[in-house]
From TrEMBL:
Identification of the protein by name: Catalase
Keywords, alphabetical: Heme, Hydrogen peroxide, Iron, Metal-binding, Oxidoreductase, Peroxidase
Organism: Nocardioides pini
UniProt keyword Cell membrane, yes or no: no
Catalytic activity: 2 H2O2 = O2 + 2 H2O
Entries under InterPro entries matching the protein: Catalase, Catalase_AS, Catalase_clade2, Catalase_clade2_helical, Catalase_core, Catalase_haem_BS, Catalase_immune_responsive, Catalase_large_C
Catalase core domain sequence ranges: 23-411
Family under the similarity heading: Belongs to the catalase family. HPII subfamily.
Length: 687
């Protein structure tokens, strides 16, 4: 069991940590693990020290290769409960009404190494392993519904272009460099995915506030063999929210583990993250097209306005890993891990993935037996005829690991469909010659990028323009910037002109023409309100101020499911039983969704250098920075009592700023502001 009482991999299964005494790997108790065996206290170390040899040998080999992509990530245990809505279109047991299936989910960035920062601009992985009664099903998705390439044969190209430059191995975990923009500007089918990366989706607020997508079209099979094409969507119950770019950059230094910490803390505190799983369904027609959209082209999405997402169940993450390496690092996902009732399609991207995910584990987990590692073990009984290989854990009985066999009672037997066998759908393959070609529908690289752009509100468009300005501004090669501007011209002339202006380059003319797509308002993150559970509020406390008001505000926020953190001029007791969780020295705005200045905040003794304000009585400069940053990042700002003078001195006011005599006066406003995530109008654009 994990510390939260939720299910996790059983450590005893790995024969680890049994008994109270320190032992060698072979179970011999050890009397001294701190001193090597030497010829006298100052003499040479003896080769006969078998414990030293074993301890150092094992340490020397602790590291395994990181994932070739998605190296940086964090996982959690949970449960998926189906509502039965998918049973009509799939016979999979996991979709049966009320069926509860244990899951392990791993979120990740794509580009960075294992130790890189969480908040970089990148696509996020959202991979789910369902331990169903019929075997493991892995839904290996991303937080962006489209991909850079249409054919998996180009995966090494896009990854080589996006990873750090091979000569200096910089920049780490960034797409803001020449080789990335060189590739995507030459290879224009990547423009749709790239536009999503440049939008707020590229810098999520939290793993808990990301959508997830299966990306490809999958094929569901019902009890009678009937088929339906589907796309999978994960919808976060807390809504889709993002950081702003400056926050993301600051967090890269101030808290590179921001997303990992957020996920762990939320689960630990019982604020279990939840997502609804939904499907868009399409008739399984021979052409596999829907409303003119090629369902086998993973650079295209199907707008929700054309095919609504139907909820088929809910995922709750309720258990943190007990051991990061054993679970989050060793978990191995594979798009070919399918169960009866869920099948793939001929999307050439998916086909290549079906090869790649098995193959990569041979290097990463050093052999073909990775499904025997505790986190990967199916909960369904396993009776395969695979034998031997590195790290074999099983002691197989019998003499006939082959079939057909007349020994061992002919066991194991193959099952029929009515006994739960995976039956391949007899899809008709069109008569064709072998070719290295794309269908003509794959030639449209821009219409859906434009669809995304025109679906954004002005404030979201502003963020996109700024993101391109940053990324291309980091490139050195003029020709690459110019080529990318041409791609932008083919998406939208205003987008192109605004980015070009920032780069100091002329905006090129559009060269590709296509029908104007209808916008999809469902793609925007702005305009709705969401639950505020788990939102973090920094409360700046003056130990000489109205502590009763602070205590009541803290209580109200806790009761509303938020996480109020008291920020004091010093650590420890602030008076009236209030204890500082942060100090002026350790607090920084990026940790909070809102800030409350609950009293005067004169410079603490460790403040250097204090800045005089017009009001004469200087505020601690770190509190000024806290307020200024929260304001600049369009977060809710509140002031109570003498805290109002701090805001006045800084000129902080207007939309999203609430003040009062006591905490009780600002609590409701704060909750309303937080439910909209940002004070959108403060970004300077009408939304
Ligand atoms: Fe992939 C890892 C998602 C295309 C090859 N991929 C990986 C992970 C996610 C995705 C979430 C991390 C899994 C984990 O947490 O362990 N990948 C995607 C999506 C794609 C996609 C949504 C397009 C729709 N991937 C893709 C292609 C290929 C790969 C086209 C190769 C042809 N992906 C891999 C891999 C990785 C991987 C090399 C690295 C580590 C691993 O598999 O286990 O096999």
């Amino acid at each position: 069991m994990s510390p939260t009482g939720a299910p996790s991999a059983d450590p005893s299964a790995a024969n680890a940590q049994q008994g109270a005494y320190l032992t060698t790997a072979t179970g011999v108790r050890i009397g001294d693990s701190d001193h090597s065996l030497k010829a006298g206290p100052r003499g040479p170390t003896l080769l006969s020290d078998h414990h030293l040899r074993e301890k150092i040998m094992h340490f020397d080999h602790e590291r395994i290769p990181e994932r070739v992509v998605h190296a940086r990530g964090a996982g959690a245990h949970g449960v998926f409960v189906a509502n039965g809505a998918a049973s009509e279109v799939s016979r999979a047991a996991v979709f049966g009404k009320g069926v509860e299936t244990p899951v392990f989910v791993r979120f990740s960035t794509v580009l960075g190494s294992r130790g890189s920062a969480d908040t970089v601009r990148d696509t996020r992985g959202f991979a789910t392993k369902f331990y169903t009664t019929e075997g493991n099903w892995d839904l290996v998705g991303n937080n962006i519904p489209v991909f850079f390439i249409q054919d998996g044969i180009k995966f090494p190209d896009v990854v080589h272009a996006a990873k750090p430059h091979p000569d200096r191995e910089i920049p780490q975990a960034q797409s803001a460099h020449d080789t990335f923009w060189d590739f995507v500007s030459l290879h224009t089918e990547a423009q749709h995915h790239t536009l999503w990366n440049m939008s707020d989706r590229g810098i999520p607020r939290s793993y808990r506030t990301m959508e997830g997508f299966g990306v490809h079209t999958f094929r569901l099979v019902d009890a009678d063999g009937g088929t339906t094409l589907v796309k999978f969507h994960w919808k976060p119950r807390l809504g889709v929210h993002s950081l702003v770019w400056e926050e993301a950059q600051l967090l890269g230094g101030l808290d590179p583990d921001f997303h990992r910490r957020d996920l762990y803390d939320a689960i630990e505190s019982g604020a279990f993250p939840e997502w609804d799983l939904g499907i868009q369904t399409f008739p399984d027609t021979p052409d596999q097209m829907f409303e003119g959209i090629d369902l086998l082209d993973s650079t295209k999405l199907v707008p929700e306005e054309l095919a609504p997402v139907q909820v088929i169940g809910t995922l709750t993450l309720n258990g943190n890993p007990t051991n990061f390496f054993a679970e989050s690092e060793q978990v191995a996902f594979h798009t070919g891990h399918l169960v009866p009732g869920i099948d793939g399609t001929d999307d050439p991207l998916l086909m290549a993935r079906n090869f790649s995910y098995l193959d990569t584990q041979l290097t990463r987990l050093a052999g073909p037996n990775f499904n025997q590692i505790p986190i990967n073990r199916p909960h369904a009984p396993v009776n395969d005829n695979h034998r031997d290989g590195y790290h074999q854990q099983a002691v197989h009985g019998g003499v006939a690991p082959y079939g057909p066999s007349s020994l061992d009672g002919g066991c194991p037997f193959v099952a029929g469909a009515d006994e739960g066998a995976f039956v391949d759908v007899p899809v008709t393959v069109p008569e064709a010659s072998k070719v290295r070609e794309n269908p003509a529908t794959y030639d449209d690289h821009f219409s859906q990028a434009r669809l995304f752009w025109t679906s954004m509100t002005p404030v979201e468009q502003e963020h996109i323009v700024a993101a391109y300005g940053f990324e291309l501004g980091k490139c050195y090669e003029q020709a690459i910037k110019e080529r990318q501007l041409l791609a932008l011209a083919n998406i939208d002339d205003e987008l192109c002109a605004r980015v070009a202006q920032g780069l100091g380059l002329p905006a090129p003319e559009r060269t590709v023409h296509y029908d104007e797509p209808d916008p999809s308002p469902a793609l925007s993150q702005v305009g709705e309100t969401w639950p505020t559970d788990g939102r973090t509020v920094g409360i700046v406390v003056d130990p000489d101020g109205d502590l009763e008001s602070v205590a009541r505000l803290r209580e109200t926020l806790l009761e509303a499911g938020l996480l109020p953190l008291l920020v004091g001029p010093h650590g420890g007791d602030l008076g009236d039983g209030l204890v500082a969780q942060r100090t002026f020295a350790t607090a920084r705005s990026v940790e909070y969704d809102a800030v409350v200045v609950a009293g005067a905040a004169p410079p603490a003794p460790d403040a250097v250098p204090a800045r005089d304000t017009e009001a004469g009585a200087a505020t601690d400069p770190r509190v000024e920075l806290l307020v200024e940053e929260c304001f600049r990042h369009s977060k809710a700002v509140a002031a109570v009592g003498d805290g109002r003078a701090v805001l006045d001195a800084l000129g902080v006011g207007g939309a999203g700023v609430t003040t009062g005599d006591t905490g009780a006066d600002v609590a409701d406003d704060l909750l309303t502001l937080l439910s909209a995530h940002r004070v959108w109008e403060r970004f300077g654009t009408t939304v």
